[in-house]
Amino acid sequence: MGATKFEIYTEELIRLSELAKAISHPARLKAVLIIANETDEDVTLKDIMEEIDLAQSTLSQHLKVLRDAGLVMTKLIVENNTSKQIYRINKLALEQINKLLNHLSDRIDLKQDDRFNAVKSFYSRLYEITNWNQCFNS
């Protein structure tokens, strides 16, 4: 039997991979964008369901992945004998992802050859995107 990831990799590396994995699904990424866009209002599951056409149970599972990874924080609020869970972005987690991407961006030194140009043309659509929310409109 092989070694576990906890024996091979540092805690920081495992944590960053879990953050990246959490936003690697389009529904979870869209949920993060929805939650991040609402700076003045509390975001509930109902609000997210209005924008993402998934079953409530499926969306709840996606939000659990985001919460377990630490990308979103939740708070239970009770009003008028009704409880609801609100979601907020964990800014520190997003800063960790940003640091990783900045580190990678600062370190890359790609050789200009045919393989690089093929990859660049494959991802050229991403360079044209200025409004990320448009990518996730249903």
From TrEMBL:
Transcription regulation as UniProt keyword: yes
**Location of the HTH arsR-type domain:** 8-112
Q: Does the keyword Kinase apply?
A: no
Keywords of the record, alphabetical order, are: DNA-binding, Transcription, Transcription regulation
Which GO terms label this protein's molecular function in UniProt?
DNA binding; DNA-binding transcription factor activity
- Listed name of the protein: Helix-turn-helix transcriptional regulator
**What is the protein's species of origin?**
Taishania pollutisoli
